[in-house]
Predict the 3D structure of the following.
Amino acid sequence: MGRSVLVTGGSGYFGSVLAECARARGDSVRIFDLNPPAPGSGVAEYVAGDVRDRAAVRAACDGVDLVFHNVAQVPLARDRALFDAVNVGGTANVLVAARAAKVAKVVHTSSSAVFGIPETNPVAEDSVCRPLEAYGRAKLRAELLCHDAVASGLDVTIVRPRTVLGHGRLGVIALLFEFVADGAPVFVLGSGANRYQLVHATDLASACLLAGDRSGPSVYNVGALEFGTMRETLQALVEHAGTGSKVRSLPVAPARTVMRLLSTLGLAPFAPYHWLLYGESLYFDVTRARTELGWEPQHSNASMVIESYEWFLAHRYDAHGGRRSHHQSAVRPGVVRALKAIP
């Protein structure tokens, strides 16, 4: 028999995928979000509220067995105050409310950004966390709150995903897809030989659900088993697309400087996370999730980027309406669109 679960941020990109996966396996799903779920989602209950409102969070936790906490301001928000208020303060509110409501388990979705640029790869759960920018630092502070909650008796598990893809995923990735669809070049920093791991939204949802089924606190890093370099991933995409798009290299230091400048001027949709980490290797050792949870990812880097691209093509001219989170909306390319002219 399914359980009663609360999905915070359940109307956002990943939250909606997780809510649907939970509902499909028989759980009774309640969504807590500022925005209502998409029509036809099949979710049993929607509670409107802001994660910064402790009373609203407390009310949403009443009567549930399990909380999946996914509300977060993502790097594209570029708002340090919101990173603190939502990613840190909101997490504190969820943990306090879950304890007061006697929730049996909390699964907190964190981020690989807590590691910054790792000293070595693959990255394990106990690798040193050295976030480089405000988003990563806020996500790490939220993790520390989870550990404090565990010390006080709450069962909390942290799941750290690599970059999430899947059908419906837009944000900055929509800019890449636009370039490929139009036969324009797409770019890597330097040679593109950095190994870059992705994770499909349904694989991440599976990991979260399995973590919710396991009693006792833990931390799990999750990502694809089959992945390669950034250049290899983009090459698989352009070969699939067959539009004439080519993978080109940009010199690392000048590209980062220009990305930072354009972002500062509001002329391009970049956040510090993008120029600091896009050209770096970061991939997880997912042994713990596979052995303790029995989790097995079903998607490779290539398969998920191709799936996401095909969804983009099918919805290219209607995907800008009706979506509200950063990951569900295509970014405005700004002056970056000028790169299409490079032969």
Summary: The longest strand covers residues 28-33. The domain at 4-164+198-222 is CATH 3.40.50.720 (Rossmann fold). Residues 319-323, 325-331 have pLDDT under 50 and may be disordered. The CA atoms of residues 199 and 223 lie 5 Å apart.
